[in-house]
Write a structure and sequence with these properties.
With 665 residues, this protein is α+β, with helices and mostly antiparallel strands. It is built from 17 helices and 31 strands. GO terms for molecular function: oxidoreductase activity; transaminase activity.
Length: 665
């Protein structure tokens, strides 16, 4: 059975009939609706009861029948009508515009008696509302309002909408509650079982504010957040308090409009609910070959376990393979932002603290980025593909953040620059081949790229084809060894990985993971932004004073770096540490203090940011931030953590291959 006070329910009844369902009756509270939809129902021989409403539902655990009664208007009942058998009652009480966003923009509402719904009145922001959101519930009305407001915007006064063939709908008749029937059986909120009697009790308790009524009765506080109950409850409250609907008002529309899932609230540890896992193209291969996966924003292997190995043994094996032979690393998550346009070089020259204008096409340069306070926020290698085209590499976890940051500068500050930025991180898969034998491995590939030492030096870039696939290759290294970062379209990532693994077997190629890479870069003294820096670290603390002093053009953070506080010599500076006892591990996060047995409390002179038991050097090494470190080289210090101290020596961050000779192979 379909019960309604408007025309829209007729569509439902006709669709049910067309689908083969039995429509017991259409009960319309209006006395004499007479339009195309009513005629269509009569032609289908569907029972139609106009001027009737539901008096009683019959049935205990389920609906078995409905007792009708004459509707005299405004919810008042007349004579008892027929009893009709049915098992489902579909109810339509009208429509109310979805105005949550409008209200959150500072818009106020008023009640339209003719449409029996709340509609926009005025808004603090420049917002124009058309269509159903404005209470126009028919297609023709939506078109008319859209054309009308559109004409006002473009100043074309005679712009008129097209006529549509939609049937003319009859006016609805408001029906808020049934008079003369037990109110504790008249439900308003079907989720929380709020009845008309609950609203009556709230009125007797002198709760006049609709916000108080909402919380007292819990009306509109369940799954649908009042989408099916609020207007009826407001109308009942208006009748009981002798006020108009606008005087009663509406409850506060608070974000979010859509319900928040429990998975979101529980967090990323609960299955896949919080955020989609980002998987590299070769994810299944890594798992099948012993990769111990960890969530770094992307699921990445920390290391690859072999039978009989523990974590430290696996990391040691992988580091030594890269130092003595050749390893392969999945660098697909590395941030990749394409910057293109006539002003691309000018834009990046403002983004990086070092010079981007002098970089030639086909060459690469390492750069630092700062915020307005001069604090280092990211780093990476940027490549000039053409005069107006760059590829900017960010930290793996910083791609989205830096992309949005660049967009903000372009859209809010530098509107005169003709530059487009596109985040292509997920479009390219990357296989990084690193080690003394890396060149021998890549030369086994079917490619038109010349990988010879003379033709392809360190910090240069080439494009071509590899195994018939378009490829981009960068000579840059985070291990300190000869390295080729090979990028192909993501769909070819697994195929490229497997091909390099196959061709590299003659050279005992071995995959290595993130933890092994961290040990390799710590040996080499390469900075890891966010690990070896904090929210106060500036480029001067990292030893970048000379490149910055040579740059004439302005860049983000330049003025802040001129402050006396940023140029103090006693600031925390990037430095290397070696344990006096080579086999005694330096504690990660340990603080640099005076003396082996200080009197507590004592002041901290800095702290350790990265550590490893170096497989290459066979000793305990680390990196850290220490006060005035560059003037204290070879000074003996003490690292304190958890009640124990470890003696260490301040040294250059570059523990291995200080002259960088191994980078060229």
């Amino acid at each position: 059975m379909v019960v309604t006070n408007n025309d829209s329910a007729y569509h439902t009844a006709l669709e049910l009939h067309a689908a083969g369902q039995t429509v017991a009756a259409i009960v319309d509270t209006r006395a004499s609706p007479n339009g195309p939809l009513q005629q269509a129902v009569i032609e289908k021989h569907l029972p139609l009861y106009c001027g009737y409403t539901v008096q009683t539902l019959i049935g205990r655990r389920a609906v078995r029948a409905v007792q009708l009664a004459e509707h005299l208007g405004d919810g008042h009942l007349g004579k008892t009508g027929p009893t009709l058998p049915c098992d489902v009652v579909a109810i339509s009480g009208g429509w109310n515009p979805t105005l949550h966003l409008y209200s959150q923009a500072g818009g106020s509402l008023t009640f339209d008696d003719a449409k029996a719904c709340f509609v926009p009145r005025q808004c603090a922001q420049a917002v124009t509302v058309v269509g159903a959101a404005n209470g126009d519930m028919t297609l023709q009305a939506c078109l008319d309002s859209g054309y009308r407001e559109g004409a006002a915007v473009v100043a074309v006064p005679r712009l008129t909408s097209e006529r549509c063939a939609e049937p003319v709908q009859q006016a609805m008749e408001p029906y808020w509650s049934t008079k003369g029937v037990a109110t504790h059986k008249q439900w308003l909120d079907f989720q929380y079982d709020v009845t008309v009697a609950d609203i009556e009790l709230a009125a007797r308790e002198n709760l006049l504010s609709i916000e108080h009524v909402k919380r007292y009765t819990t009306n509109g506080m369940s799954v649908d957040q009042g989408k099916t109950s609020n207007v009826n409850a407001l109308a009942v409250m208006a009748e009981l308090s002798g006020r108009s609907m606008p005087q009663v008002g509406t409850t506060k529309f608070r974000p979010p409009y859509q319900p928040v899932t429990l998975g979101t609230i529980a967090g990323r540890k609960i299955g896949e609910h919080y955020a989609p896992r980002q998987l590299m193209p070769a994810h299944a291969w890594h798992q099948a070959h012993g990769g111990q996966m960890q969530d770094y924003g992307w699921m990445r292997p920390d290391y690859y376990l072999r039978p009989g190995e523990d974590e430290q043994a696996a990391i040691r094996r992988e580091v030594l393979v890269v130092r003595k032979g050749v390893g392969m690393f999945d660098g697909s998550p590395l941030g990749k932002l394409e910057v293109k346009g006539p002003d691309a070089a000018i834009f990046l020259n403002r983004i990086y603290v070092n010079n981007a204008l002098t970089l030639k096409p086909g060459f690469a340069r390492y750069g630092l980025m700062c915020n307005e306070q001069g604090v280092v926020i990211d780093d990476g290698v940027f490549v000039r593909l053409a005069e107006d085209h760059f590829m900017v590499h960010t930290t793996s976890g910083g791609a989205v953040r830096i992309f949005q940051w660049m967009e903000e500068w372009l859209h809010c500050e530098w509107l005169d620059l003709e530059v487009a930025v596109n985040n292509v991180t997920t479009q390219w898969a990357n296989v990084t081949v690193s080690g003394p034998k890396a060149r021998q491995v890549v030369e086994q590939l079917d490619t038109d790229i010349d990988f010879s030492r003379e033709a392809f030096p360190h910090m240069q870039f080439r494009t071509g084809t590899i195994e018939g696939v378009p490829a981009r290759v960068l000579r840059a290294s985070f291990t300190g060894e000869v390295t080729y970062e090979i990028s192909v379209p993501a769909r070819y990532g697994l195929a490229l990985w497997e091909t390099i693994d196959e061709r590299g077997q003659a050279f005992a190629i071995t995959p290595y993971g993130v933890e092994s890479l961290m040990a390799l870069r710590t040996e080499k003294g390469y900075l890891h932004v966010g690990v070896d820096t904090d929210g106060t670290t500036n480029p001067l603390d990292l030893g970048w004073g000379v490149p910055i002093s040579k740059k004439v053009a302005d860049f983000i953070g330049c003025r802040s770096l001129q402050r006396p506080n940023d140029q103090r010599t006693d600031r925390l500076q990037f430095v290397g540490l070696t344990a006096v006892d080579p086999q005694q591990a330096l504690p990660l996060g340990g603080h640099i203090i005076d003396g082996a047995h200080p009197k507590m409390p004592t002041s901290s002179q800095g702290y350790v940011t990265s550590v490893c038991l170096s497989p290459t050097l066979n000793c305990s090494i680390g990196l850290g931030l220490v006060k005035n470190a560059r003037q204290r080289m070879n000074e003996k210090v003490y690292v304190y953590a958890r009640g124990k101290t470890v003696a260490a020596t301040l040294v250059s961050p570059t523990h291995f291959d200080g002259k960088g000779e191994r980078l060229n192979g």
